[in-house]
Design goal:
Blueprint: H1 13-41, H2 51-61, E1 68-71, E2 79-81, E3 86-89, H3 91-95, H4 99-117, H5 120-149, H6 152-190, H7 193-229
């Protein structure tokens, strides 16, 4: 049978609901992480060093060597890149010594520890990267062609391609949670209580952004599956 894409009286209520949910979650989680980061960036950590230096100490305590640290522009743009084996830290977290700086820098160090120790979800996520890079670029094209040609098979193929992005988002969750857990365990063992309290709040806020992204992706997938199923 053919494929039909539409809604009640020309308005797809479910689609606009997902768009609204995405906007609300995006604004809420981004606002929350910025508030927590701003709050704890004003509080000096108990460590005698910058975020970068504490991250290096965390790596050493885990027996991880050879990891570099480089600067990246912007705010909250920090990441660990296994390709060059470097923590890329924004200025505040590279040179600053606040609770927020230490929390973010140690979180990125947690990713380096994962990579060094062969953490299984990281291996899965790394394997998915080239697949997702491809599917993200083509799934919408295939979907639109399927709708234009009224071909269910192409639409289903597009949804399958999109599903890889959802899987990637889901695999990302344990990777991010575990990196934060490693950071908090180190801060708990080497810092003071205020460091742990602030770091937990900053990293929990950051984790919510990944949860929100995964939830939106799941809703989008369920929507696409539902719209296809309605017209079988």
């Amino acid at each position: 049978m053919g494929y039909y894409y539409g809604g009640y009286y020309g308005i797809d209520i479910a689609y606009y609901a997902i768009v609204l949910i995405s906007l609300i979650l995006g604004i809420a989680t981004q606002g929350y992480i910025k508030r927590q980061y701003s709050r704890w960036s004003k509080k000096d950590a108990s460590y005698n060093g910058t975020g970068a230096e504490v991250a290096q100490q965390m790596l050493a305590s885990n027996g991880v060597t050879g990891v570099g640290i480089a600067r990246v522009g912007g705010q909250l743009t920090d990441y660990y890149d296994p390709r060059d084996n470097q923590l890329h830290l924004s200025d505040e977290n590279l040179r600053g010594g606040s609770v927020a700086s230490v929390a973010v820098a140690c979180h990125e160090a947690g990713h380096a520890v994962q990579h060094a120790k062969g953490y299984a979800p990281v291996k899965i996520r790394t394997a998915l990267v080239p697949v997702v890079n491809f599917t993200q670029n083509v799934w919408m094209i295939v979907f639109l062609i399927g709708v234009f040609l009224n071909t269910v098979g192409l639409v289903r193929l597009a949804i399958l391609l999109f599903a890889f992005s959802v899987i990637f988002q889901l695999v990302t969750l344990p990777v991010e949670f575990n990196a934060s857990h490693r950071a908090l365990e180190y801060i708990k063992s080497s810092g003071q209580s205020i460091d742990l309290v602030g770091a937990r709040q900053v990293l929990t806020a950051a984790a919510l952004t990944y949860v929100a992204a995964a939830l939106v992706s799941i809703l989008q997938l369920l929507y696409l599956l539902g719209r296809t199923g309605d017209r079988d």
